[in-house]
Amino acid sequence: MNLFLWIIRAIIFSVVLLFAINNTDPVILKILPGFPELTLLGPLVVWLFLAFILGVITTFLILLPSILRNWKVSKRNAN
Asked: Are the C-beta atoms of residues 24 and 43 closer than 8 Å to each other?
């Protein structure tokens, strides 16, 4: 079972790596439409990675109050 999981992970990693290698062309990211001074130029992979990281950080910050509340409850019940 452990070998199967590593094979699945290797396949997923390979697909993501191939996607990243194929999407290195520069793209224009328009922050606000209609404001040409608010545009950024960079590879598509960079923008996708930044969007993913921002999503992870946002999710963590949204879940942080419930994580801390559950941590306090479990700490109180442990004593």
From this structure: yes
